[in-house]
Write a structure and sequence with these properties.
This protein is 12% helix and 28% strand. It has 159 residues and is of the alpha+beta class. Pfam families: Rieske (PF00355).
């Protein structure tokens, strides 16, 4: 028989048991406080956030419904690298918009600029056409991968 099991001895409480008990008591207190104060005993619920017509009501999981840029953001004869959205959008001629994957096929660096009619990867100086993503110069063995885009009003989104 151990010292803890001696008749009449108080049970030994471990730190783990003490913390578990304190956590359970705290959780019970929080649940009691959240019970609401209605006299009829019915629980009330929050109506949640107001739904508006802006943004993606699907939570951003549907890429085709999310605007990437405005048409005015993309210069004619140039383009923009949208790193956070994972796309390069170009406008080779007025009103004609193209989308490309920003990953350079050479070694996977992301392209960083669109200047002088080309999409440029500064890692190893590969240059790609703003028209079709084809290799214009550099070590890249393949063109940039196309991404279909659509224009709705003045908004550009993935198709």
């Amino acid at each position: 028989m151990t010292d803890d099991q001696v008749a009449g001895a108080r049970p030994v409480r471990t730190r783990r048991a003490l913390l578990a008990g304190a956590g359970a008591a705290g959780a019970a207190a929080m649940l009691a406080a959240c019970g609401g104060g209605d006299d009829d005993g019915a629980a009330t619920t929050s109506p949640g956030p107001q739904v508006t017509n802006t943004g993606d009501a699907g939570g951003g999981g549907r890429q085709d419904s999310q605007s990437l840029a405005r048409t005015s953001d993309i210069p004619v004869g140039g383009g923009a690298v949208l790193s956070a959205q994972g796309i390069v959008i170009t406008q080779p001629s007025p009103g004609e918009f193209r989308g490309f994957d920003p990953k350079c096929p050479h070694q996977g660096c992301n392209v960083t600029t669109v200047e002088g009619g080309t999409i440029n990867c500064v890692c190893h100086n590969s240059r790609f056409s703003i028209e079709d993503g084809s290799v214009q110069s550099g070590p890249s063995p393949a063109p940039l991968e196309r991404k279909d885009v659509k224009v709705s009003g003045d908004q550009i989104a993935l198709a």
